[in-house]
Amino acid sequence: MSLTLSDNHRKQLDQFNNLTVEKLVREDIGSAGFSKLHERLTTIRSMINDLIAIATTAPDISNIYLDVLFNYISAYNSHGSKLVQYNPDANNSTQTKHTIINAVEGLYTYMLTGVDSTGQRPANMTFVALYSVLKQRQFDNISSNIIDVENNKAEFIDLKTKTEQLLATLQDKAKEVSLHDYSEIFSKQAELHSKWDRKNLGSAQIWLISTFVLISLFICFISKIEILYPINTSANATIITIEYLTRVLIISFFIYLITFCAKQFNIQQHLSIVNKHRENTLNSYKLFIDSLGDSNSEIKHALMMEVAKAIYDSGQTGYLGSNDKSEGSPSLIEMTKYVSGNK
User: C-alpha angle 261/262/266, rounded to 5°?
Assistant: First the structure.
């Protein structure tokens, strides 16, 4: 690098070169790592490397621009150090991981848009502005003739177009990630309620097994009732009545337990199907939106209402009767229609 750098800048640059994406995603800790940040870190590192390459060939780089460049390098190093030092077994590791991911996402968004995590535009020079300045210096060093000026103009226009496209892509990616994340949440919830797996049964399967066990015990009890609780017909009427009542109470208790377990099975199956339906709705939503294009706002509104209904309405699955579903307060869909109708 032909630039004149301070010792602090050299240390930061050495640390940046050492903190490769492969080190930061932490594949050594498996699923607890940060593989989902691979694309973000790769993009951030590529953008910073582009600036470093430009600054190397551009003459007379002001210390102001160098400081801005190394601010981005310092931010990358700071987040990278936290990724390297992350311990999945430490206390509050989940919260720490979430904080680190949000910080990297915030840096990624700030470098592309100039807007920080609070939605503000800091007074510091944005990445695109710094890129433009350094690129202009580089072009000035190459040639000052009219042809080069026109080429520079075309390249700046192309850069603007690419930046706009990149921002649009970022927005689309953010929507896809949000839909995908919520879809995964509903998928996991569906499996918690109902899943056939020897090592990890769902709640519905546990209640179903409990129901069959109770039915088996009940059948055994009925077949042995004369032995377990015989009726002494030679005793007085009070004793005979007590013996009959004992039988009735035990049988009633068995029936209650069997009915309770069966109802719990139906509830868990109902919740599993509802969450699976929500997952399928979110997975298919983007496909419908993309097929509609930029027009058809009324159809998009109607589609969004149906998606919201699928998420917030419990629906009918066949496992719960009409008496088991509470009326409750007005749904979000009804409230939205009410508000829309009064505008």
Answer: 115
